[in-house]
Design a protein that fits this description.
Helix content: 25-40%
Strand content: 15-25%
Number of helices: 28
Largest sheet: 5 strands, mixed
Number of strands: 27
Strand order of the largest sheet: 21-20-19-22-23
Length: 952
Amino acid sequence: MTAHVAPIALDFEEGIDRKTLRRLRDRFLSVNQQRWERACSALTYRQRIVLEVLPLVFHTNHPALPGYIDSDCPYGLSHYRPLSATLNAARRLARTFSVRNEGKRRPDLDALFLMGSPGTLGHSVASDLDLWLCHRSDLPERGILCLERKAEKLSEWAASLGVELHVFVFCAEDWRAGRQRAEVTGENCGSAQHYLLLDEFYRTSIHLGGRYPMWWLIPADCESRYDECMRQLVDCRFVRGDEYIDFGPVAAIPDEEFLGAGVWQLYKGIDAPWKSILKLLLIECYAQAKDQPLLSSVFKRAVFRGETDADGLDPYLMLYHRLEDWLSDPSMSGRLDLVRRSLYLKAGLPLTRTESAPEQWRVRLLTQLVQRWQWPEQTLDELDNRHRWRAEAVTSLRRLIVAELTHSYRLLSKMARDHGTRSAISVGDINLLGRKLYAAFQRKAGKIEQINPGLAPSLVEENLAFHHQSEQGSDGNGWLLYRDLEDPADAFWQPVIRRSGNLTELMVWCYCNGLLSRSTRLNVRAGQTVASVSELREMLEALSGFLPFPIEPADREALSQGVRPLRNLLLVNVGVDPQAHLTEKGLHKLSARHDSLGFSGGRENLVVTIDQITFNSWHEVSLQHYAAGDTLVQCLKNVLASVAGNPSAIPGIRVHGHNRGHGAAIARRVQELFSDVLRRFFAGGVGPHPLRYVIEMDRRYFLLQFNGREPGFVALDSFSALMEHLALPQKRYLPVVFDRHAIPENPALRAVSQASEPDNIQVFYCVRGDRARIWVVDELGSLSGWEQAVGNRRYLMVPLLRFLENLMERRMLRHSDVPTVLAGVQCQEVVHRDGHWRTELRPDTDSGVPLPGLEVQAVGVQEGGSRVRFDIFCGEQEFTVQEYGDQLIPAVAHYIRSQRQNHETYPVYLTDVHLPHDLDPQVYQQDIQTSQYLYYRSVLEQALNRALHSDR
């Protein structure tokens, strides 16, 4: 650094004079003016207009100037006198503009500052502008809110001119007291840091108007007694009260601030790694080298010594020199190299083509640094041509950056634990930042890693080739990604960009990382698969409609809540022909069945594989591949599980299938199935609702239901197995819902399930010729069904209704002290009328008709284990297990036959069954379900009727 003027030493003990204080203030203003000119030189003409008129916009509140809200909005910048260049810039925006004389009106605004990289080596045309707008402390809340709205409006106007502007509205008194109005957003660090931000402000800020900082006038050596010195200057009238603004001292950084500030820089580093790496390492340096002065103190000491040259006082150069000294150990060479690359890329000046750059001072400073670093031309060429970076280079660089960020975060976290200090960042903000870091960097199964967090402008490739491993003589099923393969034989000599076991994963990775666009030429070597270029093109269109690129980071509101899926894209049968084996057998020609889950005469399931792509509320993209087992039901189960946590926001479902092998029809069927199932389980935005959903697929049946919030399914190999399962007892009422394409041969059963109601015993029957189907839906929805011959239609329902009435009567007597929850027994006939199956109520007037034969009752006896045996009573004749043992059933059958006249052959019907409450020895069952009584009634009746016929 070069000293241009004489040093200034303030001695608060010996005495201070106003003239010396004015010289000191003017010295800071001189540095300020150089930075202002440098900041303007880095901007385009339109961007420069924004910077020039900003003080005037807040000073005058003129309706013709940008950001105007209303006439009551606070305005007036203390001690501000606009320059002619500023007035000219305003008149270019509004020809009628003129400055009004406000007389002695008290200004509402104390000061306006620009802080950060403007006017420094680290600034470029793409950099944003951070503005500190400081209002007087007694400004009413309405006025503050109006200023904040004006700031938002100004930011929108600046954006239209190509400037990213952030205006932070606050007062110095609130700042000193640590009162934060803002939460963590894209640019506001919320509660994450105070002194570190103040350190940056003091060494980087450009004073645009209003009061100057009191900090300028307090020597660095006196910072520990800052308030005492300030009071001396004010009380002795060396400085007038309306001249200065006071943000307070920054003598040292408290331990509790390091973690919060470190996490905040990690948060910023997700989208802007180069600047964040520099700042994060400075935080680590401050934390580990507390004996070294802060950079703001180094800057102030230099100005006091008379060093006012903008080169030597450049904040980014000062930051780099501090990090270079700190990382001087040879073991730190890798981190130092990353610091140098980060500074070079943050500057945004490609030295290999800067002959006509308007900011020659930045070129000169950066060239001097690069010469000191002794970088070869190859390094410069690589950094200057980021637009030519490929995925492999970006992936390697990202690993280095993530490793550095993770290292720093762990170090800061350990420091916070070791010191036993609380972090200055609020719990809410640290959770928010942690979630964003997790979403950006955390690896987990199925997650698509995004490799280009602002490292390269674009990774799009002109040519991409997808090769199946079998093309290279390998037995594997994986895929290889290449670029620029004119001749497929060149694959043996070309590097592989990426390997994957799944073609969809490779496509999604390319799309999410920008390698793949509509203009990319594709080549596919399918090997043992049937993948094609047209299929990949269709997949790309589906991805583009599902997930716009680039993927924007999640906002604060989304990160403040738990992660949930927003939408799913299901890609069916990628690279697979679902009809290949059917075509060989000719099965697809043998039937008119067109359901994709039960296609042709063989009822084949045409869904062979599913790739589920999920985009969640934290803007993570993940992929789940289903290719083994019951793929469709497994995928459906996982989607249901993801919805159960937040049923009020059901994620969108899109399904795509390539046009090969009825792809469109398969996609429609899958879309239909998912929509139906989600609507049933989560109707009204609540759930999961208690029900059992039956899907027929591939000659089998799948029953879906929830256990709490956990979905599960049972696979059943036949219709009889399904009916046995539906008859099992339940813990609560669970209706049966059949999928729209299930049981097409049994529409009467669908009508039964649709008519079932809770807290009832419902009997349904359907007569066809001399056979009848009978179903009973009990009080908890268990469904029992059987078929029997119709002898005398008058007696068809009488035995069953008599049995159920006896059961109901016994329950009512047992619970006579409380009202029964059952409404009785309903009897309904299932009929086919007007092309539809429906149920019609039939009064059970025949239930009192006397039945021929004996009253047969069974009383269960628990013998241990899971075995229940029965004593049987025929009229007044008793047959016990103890007496007859295994010959009980033959003995009863023989007795019944002996009591019949003329050898009648009508079946035996049990009129009552008693079951012990310890059917399961492990559990005492207070209330036994009707379906359980029906099960044992059926078992006993079948055994008796078999024995009756064999005894003839």
